[in-house]
User: What shape does this take?
Amino acid sequence: MKRILLLALSFGVAAVAQQPRVENAKLQTRSAAGGLEREFRTLTTSQEQPAWLGYAVPVVSGRHNSCCWSPGGACGCRLEGGTISTAAPPAAAAVKLEGSTHLLVLFRVEQRKVGKIRTFAEDCPLDAGGLPFIWLTDVRPPESVALLSGFAAGDDGSREGGRLSESALGALALHADPAADRVLEQFTAADRPERLRERAVFALSQLPKDEGVPLLIQVAKNNHDAAVRKQAFFWLGQSKDPRALAFFEEILAAAK
Assistant: This one.
C-alpha cells in the first residue's frame, strides 16, 4: 500500500524529473514516451563507444542517500576510472539529509551491450569522465521494472552476468512500484537458478519492512529449496521485526 500511495503522489513529478547533476559529460536527452524497452535497445545496439544511459524513477520511502563521500564530507561520484571514487566533482554539494524521492538508474554501455548498472540518489553529483551521457525522460516505473528484470534473470554464469544480475536486483528493491515486489518474489521460485533465488531473497530483505518482512515469511514457509529458506530465516532474524519474531515462535511451538 505504501508503494501504491508513493507512486500516485510521485507520478506527476517523475514525468518531469530533472536531469541529474552530471559534469564532464556530453549530455543528450531523449524521450522514452514510446516505450522504455524500445528506446533503450535502440540506443544500446547503436552505441559502439563507451557511454552512460540513465533515467529516474520514484524510490521507496526511507533514507536512500546513495552517493560517494570524501573524508572531508564532500559528496560526488566519478563514473569512470575503475571503481567508483570518493573524490567529488568540482561543483559537488550536499545530498538531502532527509533522503531522495527519486532513484537514478544508470547503465554503462560499450560495444553495443550493457557492462554495468549503477544506482544513485537523485541529487548525487556525478562526473561522467567526458563520455556521452544520455538521459531518458518520460520513463514509466513499471517499464523500468521490466527492463531490470531482464538483466536480473539474464545471469549466464559469467562474472559479468552475475554482477549485472546482482546490480539489477538491488535496483529493483529500491523501486517504489508494486511490480518490483512481485518480480522479486517470483525470482525466489523453485524453477529459478539457485544463485538468483538467493540474491532475490537478499533483495527482499532490502525492501521497507512492511513489504519485505511478509514476503520473507512467505519464502521461509513455502519455498522448496532449503538454502533459500535458510537465507529467508537469516534476513528475518536480522530485521528484528515483531512479525518475524512471532513467526519464529510459531515455528518453535510447532516443533515441540
In short: The chain has nine helices and eight strands.
